[in-house]
Design goal:
heterodimer; A: 295 residues; mainly alpha; B: 448 residues; alpha/beta; ten-stranded mixed beta sheet; globular
Chain lengths: 295, 448
């Protein structure tokens, strides 16, 4: 903080006002756009039409034919997609960080999917995986298959799941990559120089320097990516249609198609609960010591 | 810029543009050719919000062609998903005073949640102006949304039918007339095709945002059981679900991803598709020589079909009453109604003589509509009446019945008993009387 700012920030009684003043806009923003809607969603989920407290909407959600499938599919996608993305993104980040010739172009190319909206990505992959899509055309053109394979059939859950995992990994890995590249750039070069001095191999450098120092970034990436994974639904909608309900998709469906905001809010609360639990788990498991935080 | 980079950049730009197009919501403003220079003389410009014409090409056709000859106050035509449009009207009504939306165009079944809280004007006087326009009396009654006051003015109509690739015709079961099929014949047809080609070439729209519930409400249920609500778990309904399972066995297994049947028909993933006219028209227009459009099949109780009416209503918060009425006047003119058919494939509700130079795809569609309505055993069903906001619950209950019985192969009797409770709850909550094939009732319609 500059001296001028420090001067200006000193309010009555010598207490610092400036930090709070600087925080104010984002606090107002969060209250208006996050806290109030969250409270409204909570009320929608627990209030009846006449304003009385009720568990009717939750019961309705739990009794919904799609609920259990949606919960299972959401968790399944999470377990499959998040580790895969973190792994790929880490590999890509290390590649970019190794500063080989033209590494900057790699970063640009990797980041392309970030510019594509969820639904557009879903539709793009639909044109790949559909019966008369690009994948079958290529396989047929190469003479590898005679008749087109139906990947997106309700009869083969595995291929639908595979298609979604590929589409989602393609779309959102870049997000993790950007966070990890930023984290890598924060690691002071002294450590690498010291490692070089002692003749550490590239592998040892990665294991003993990069990974431990990258932990705060990995933690942020995991939290952000997991929360996003709970919200996944546009790509699932495009590729799996009604074959693969997910929690966010059901919330949308209950709101938009069934016009029932109460049950939609109940689904949203389940998602919120899951996201909070996972975030706490990450914070605990990847617990970051105070020393690292202030580094 | 080096060449390989340029070749990368262009697809990226294209992808971004496509991404922008795919998101819902059309920015307001720039009402296209609709705003006339003398707009100030005819009052305040207003928004025309519609759940119809959501595809970009249809929106453009509406703004630049259908509304081209309109000379009134500036009109900003916007379309969006049902939820978004209904929320906007609700928000404007709750805010009170004058809103921006001057007029709305919704499907018959979508008016319900605006009627209950009283967000729309009584359109009785406006309706009176068109008593000699030849609008079918049934449509005018439907415009009362199950009550006594006129809620909307019928604007245009559509229905559902089968689009058939001519390649499927050699497999037609012997004795079957493609213009007068029964559901049994449709199933045999699918079986024949599967036996001879190894492929399942019938397509049903069973994906997200499909209109499967309408096929159940207006076609399968009444054709097999002679009713919908009253006969929901009847013995005839059990037979029907058994038959739908048979049909499903010869239906393309990607059907659970289909929202509009025109795309799989065009890519020949399927040869026979059953859907809403507006969701079939592109393939008929693209390949009129390769396709037939034929009436929906008949069941044991007749050839029931659903008539979809799209209506116009004026919210109480309209910023320009006279302007909205003038726009209704314009949209109901025979010339405008024909332009609407030509551009966006919805059929006129007023009496008009169809021009002879229609697009071949539209001609196919018009012929199918006429054949369907003119079949000896034809019986018409409206969209559900009087359900209001509970219409969504009814649709959900029906789609879930389909998923459980047909896709997941659960026991028919058990599922019908369980889902009937949900159907009844939707009807009772909405206090909806029986409609259409179920006849009439004094209290809420009852599942028997």
């Amino acid at each position: 903080m500059s001296d001028v700012a420090r001067e200006a920030g000193r309010g009555r009684g010598g207490r610092e006002v400036l930090p709070f003043a600087l925080l104010l806009p984002s606090v107002v923003f969060l209250i208006l756009l996050i806290v109030i809607p969250m409270v409204q969603a909570l009320l929608l989920a627990v209030q009846g039409d006449n304003g009385d407290l009720t568990t009717e909407h939750f019961q309705r959600m739990l009794g919904d034919t799609a609920f259990r499938d949606a919960l299972r599919n959401t968790l399944l996608l999470l377990v499959l997609i998040v580790p895969l993305q973190i792994g790929i993104a880490l590999a890509m980040a290390l590649l970019v960080h190794s500063r080989f010739r033209g590494h900057a172009w790699f970063l640009y190319i990797y980041a392309i999917p970030l510019a594509v909206s969820d639904l557009a990505a879903g539709i793009l992959w639909l044109s790949v995986f559909t019966e008369r899509g690009y994948l079958n055309s290529i396989l047929q053109g190469l003479g590898l298959i005679k008749d087109p394979i139906i990947y997106l059939s309700y009869e083969s859950f595995g291929t639908i799941l595979g298609a979604i995992v590929i589409a989602e990994s393609w779309r959102a890995t870049a997000l993790v990559l950007v966070i990890l590249v930023a984290g890598l750039q924060l690691i002071p070069r002294d450590y690498f120089e010291a490692a070089d001095l002692f003749g550490a191999s590239r592998l040892r450098r990665t294991i003993h320097i990069v990974l431990p120092l990258l932990r705060p970034s990995l933690q942020s990436a995991l939290i952000i990516r997991t929360i996003f994974a709970f919200g996944t639904f546009a790509a699932v909608f495009a590729l799996a249609g009604r074959n693969m309900p997910v929690l966010a998709g059901e919330a949308y469906s209950w709101y938009a198609n069934n016009r029932n905001a109460h049950v939609a809010a109940s689904y949203a609360l389940v998602l919120l609960g899951l996201a909070i639990v996972m975030t706490v788990v990450y914070l605990r498991v990847l617990g970051i010591r105070e020393a690292e935080r202030t580094r | 810029m080096p060449k390989p980079i340029r070749t990368l950049i262009y697809p990226l730009i294209l992808a971004v543009i496509l991404g922008a197009c795919s998101t819902q919501g059309t920015p307001a403003g720039g009402g296209g050719g609709a705003a006339s220079p003398g707009a100030s003389a005819v009052g305040k410009a207003f928004v025309f919000a519609s759940t119809q014409f959501t595809p970009t090409t249809e929106q453009e056709a509406m703004r630049t062609k259908i509304l081209a000859a309109y000379k009134g106050a500036g009109v900003d035509f916007i379309t969006d998903a049902e939820a978004v449009i209904l929320d906007r009207i609700t928000a404007e009504a709750k805010a009170g005073g004058q809103g921006q939306v001057g007029i709305i165009g919704l499907e018959n079944g979508q008016f319900g949640s605006l009627v209950g809280p009283g967000y729309l004007q009584d359109a009785g006087t406006v309706m009176g102006k068109y008593k000699d326009a030849g609008i079918p009396a049934d449509f005018v009654t439907l415009g009362k949304a199950g009550g006594t006051t006129q809620v909307y003015i019928p604007w245009m109509q559509a229905t559902y039918f089968l689009a058939v690739n001519k390649k499927a015709l050699p497999f037609l079961p012997s004795g079957a007339d493609v213009n007068a099929l029964t559901y049994d014949q449709l199933i045999s047809w699918g079986k024949n095709i599967q036996e001879k080609t190894g492929k399942r070439m019938i397509g049903l729209p069973a994906g997200n945002n499909s209109l499967l519930h309408r096929l159940l409400q207006g076609y399968f249920y009444p054709s097999y059981t002679g009713g919908l609500i009253t006969t929901y778990k009847s013995a005839e309904a059990e037979t029907m679900w058994g038959q739908i399972r048979e049909l499903w066995k010869v239906t393309n297994p990607q059907s659970t991803t289909y929202a509009f049947m025109q795309e799989p028909l065009q890519s020949e993933e399927v040869w026979i598709g059953f859907d809403h006219a507006a969701r079939l028209i592109n393939v008929l227009k693209a390949k009129p020589d390769d396709f037939l459009a034929v009436p929906a099949p008949a069941g044991p109780k007749g050839r029931y079909y659903m008539s979809v009416v799209v209506g116009l209503a004026i919210p109480k918060t309209t910023p320009n009453q006279a302007g909205a009425e003038a726009l209704i006047d314009y949209l109901l003119k025979p010339e405008t109604q024909i332009a609407t058919l030509r551009e966006n494939s919805f059929f006129p509700v007023v009496k008009v003589d169809l021009p002879t130079d229609l697009n071949p795809g539209l001609k196919l569609e018009a012929a199918a509509v006429a054949k369907q309505a003119g079949s000896k055993d034809a019986k018409v069903v409206p969209l559900p009446v009087g359900l209001g906001a509970k219409g969504g619950d009814l649709n959900k209950a029906m789609i879930d019945t389909f998923s459980r019985i047909v896709v997941k192969n659960e026991d028919i009797k058990t599922v019908l008993a369980e889902q009937a409770v949900l159907v009844q709850k939707a009807i009772t909550d909405a206090n909806a009387k029986c409609w259409g094939p179920d006849g009439t009732s004094t209290g809420p319609c009852q599942v028997k």
